Amino acid sequence: MSSIEQYRGAGASFGLSRQVDRGLARIQGGTSLAVAKIEAQAEVNATKVDAMAAVTQRGLQGVAFMTQVEQQLAQAVPLAASRLQGLADIGALGMSQIIMDTATDLRRL
Length: 109
What we know:
By secondary structure, this protein is mostly helical. The chain has helices spanning 10-76, 81-108.
């Protein structure tokens, strides 16, 4: 007879069980929401990195091409070398500014 438990009433046990179930469901729901937010932010950040890499790569290629053209023209017209260099520097600075603007814009998103 030692395995017989004391009767506490069906209402008290059932009410407590429902309360515990609701509490656990809230915790699980909150955890799922927190994980989803973190995963979403990670996806946004990865996309920002991809965008920054693409813009930087395009800028690097642009500067390399511009430098090549500058050198070819300077060889063809040596007297224009300093002017060509100045124009190429302005172009490179402009591209750098666009890359910086992209970084700033992406941080604001």
